[in-house]
Amino acid sequence: MLPVIVGITGASGSILAKKCIEKLVSQGHPLATVCTNAGRYVWEAELRESFDDWIKGLPCQHYHIDNIAAPIASGTFVTQGMIVIPCSMGTLASMAHGLSQNLLERAADVIIKERRPLVIVPRESPLSPIHLRNMLTLAQLGAKLVLPVPAFYAHPKTLEEYIDQTTGRVLEALGLTGLAPHQRYAGDEGTPFSKTMGRK
Ligand SMILES: Cc1cc2nc3c(=O)[nH]c(=O)nc-3n(C[C@H](O)[C@H](O)[C@H](O)COP(=O)(O)O)c2cc1C
Q1: Which of 16, 42, 106, 149 maximizes ligand 1 atoms within 8 Å of its Cβ, making it the mutation to test the pocket?
Q2: Pocket test residue of 34, 88, 100 for ligand 1, highest count of atoms within 8 A of CB
């Protein structure tokens, strides 16, 4: 298995990054992680724990955001792809324009130039034309933009169920298995709703 890069930024939703990394570790994927300074701040504010302490306990290779000499800064270091979760509008803008101002942005730039899978989980509301333009640019470059929105058809009852479903979709966007069979939409046969929409 090739390593998966997980980039964490200062958008709200640190729990999504935590769950995503936990899933990848439990599946035995080699991992390289990098977190922006704002990402470390928001992690602590939202999860009431230090990101640095948490990541230290995991079997993954964590790189400091200023470590521009890390292997993930080069295209010769082959990876499965990269997930940026949650993705701030600041990092989104930098990635859309190839700024490479820190290790996370450089790693994303490498992924784009090498045409490897890039999965971005942007989080902001409402979205400005600037955000939308940058998302379009990244989508046109081949990135998948997976919004952290609930799949209401799955009837999530708790925040945990929403987080599980959302991070599952993120892993699937990278080509990995992320969803359990019961989390996949299987049509409406056998339900009281199967007779709507003009079907017999
Ligand atoms: C508690 C908190 C929540 C934030 N949530 C978001 C968010 O959801 N989306 C966003 O684009 N920025 C959000 N921000 C602002 C970013 O953290 C800020 O723009 C930062 O400079 C992003 O830096 P980074 O892209 O290097 O992580 C939030 C900031 C704080 C303190």
Answers
A1: 42
A2: 88
Contact call for residues 15 and 43 (beta carbons, < 8 A): no
Half-sphere exposure of 30 (CA within 13 A, CB side): 8
Cα angle vertex 174, ends 153, 185, to 5°?
20
Assign a CATH topology to domain 4-195: Rossmann fold (3.40.50)
Q: How far is the CA of 12 from the centre of ligand 1 (A)?
A: 7
Q: How far is it, in rounded angstroms, from Cα 89 to Cα 39?
A: 12
Q: Which amino acid is at 51?
A: F
* Distance of CA 14 from the midpoint of ligand 1 (Å): 11
* pLDDT (tens digit per residue) in 109-144: 999 999 999 999 999 999 999 999 999 999 999 999
> Hey, where are the domains in the chain?
4-195
Residue 38 CB–ligand 1 contact under 6 Å: yes
**pTM score > 0.90 for this model?**
yes
CB 100 within 8 A of CB 106: yes
